[in-house]
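Subject: design request, 124 residues
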């Protein structure tokens, strides 16, 4: 798990998580442990098959106190919301308030890949 440190306060602005396809159960356990009043967004990437629709957001949302949604390009990073990367797109933190989707080359044979998310979050 990685976080974005706040610019002046030292607080955290987001939780950023990545896992391979085998990490669904661990991600579900993590998300279900988060409180409904979490004051930051959660952005997650799991390696997914690129050639079929995903129901991951729906699966992870069952029993989660936070809303879980598949990310869309230019989605707002809202506190207390979990954003999941869609199939065949890298999920990036564009700036402190916005997500972006990318069709850049697969990383480690995967798109979405974890590294582009973590690198974009770190640069923001």
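Subject: RE: design request

Done. Sequence follows.
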């Amino acid at each position: 798990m990685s976080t974005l440190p706040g610019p002046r306060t030292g607080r955290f602005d987001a939780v950023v998580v990545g896992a391979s396809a085998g990490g669904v159960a661990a991600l579900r356990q993590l998300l279900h442990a988060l409180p409904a009043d979490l004051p930051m967004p959660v952005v997650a990437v799991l390696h997914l098959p690129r050639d079929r629709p995903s129901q991951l957001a729906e699966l992870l949302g069952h029993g989660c106190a936070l809303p879980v949604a598949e990310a869309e390009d230019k989605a707002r990073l809202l506190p207390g919301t979990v954003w999941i990367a869609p199939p065949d797109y890298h999920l990036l933190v564009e700036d402190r308030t916005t997500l972006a989707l990318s069709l850049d080359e697969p990383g480690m044979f995967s798109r979405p890949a974890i590294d582009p998310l973590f690198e974009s979050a770190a640069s923001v």
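The two ends are 16 Å apart (CA to CA).
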